[in-house]
Amino acid sequence: MHKTDRSKRRGLNPRQPWYTMTAHSGERRAMFKRMFNQMASVVVGAVLVFMSGAAPACGESLFHVGKGVTFRDYTAPLPGKILIVARTEGELILAERLAAAGHNVRIVADANEIGAVLADGDFDIVMTLFAQRQIVEAQMRSVASNVSYLPVAQKNTPEEAAAKDITRYALSTGDSIKHFLRSIHRTLKSQRA
Questions:
Q1: What is the value of pTM for the model shown?
Q2: Backbone torsions φ then ψ of 119, nearest 5 degrees
Q3: For residues 157 and 174, is the Cβ–Cβ distance under 8 A?
């Protein structure tokens, strides 16, 4: 059946404009509904096309190095509770980086405070400079806890070899955050084994 045949059968004249048609009200309503749906889809499509130009740039600025949101470099696979003696800006930054990696970090300003803090809390590791080892070891003995001591020796000094004698996971001030996290992880793993 041809298109004109159908329209004649319904009583519509195909040459007559749509707004003058005298079809039944149900057919007219269906025709307006189809036209409205077609117009709505055209408008929605146009809006999507115009907005799609901004979509690729939406989160793009976050991926530039040094700009936008900072990303954590490393994540600790075995988070631990670490007590750090930190007085300098570099030591505080190290503590922040360890906390950002997932460790529970507590900072004290003086090595003499370690005994009191260890008595109050449950820690896995105490991390201080190697030069403070005698104070730290005395404080740790007074509490008699199962805490590991992780010394940080000054880079390129005889302290580095002496720190390695205390623990094979000893660190130096020139080590990267990755090396710190690796030593902490190995110490925690050996404690829990």
A1: 0.60
A2: -65, -30
A3: no
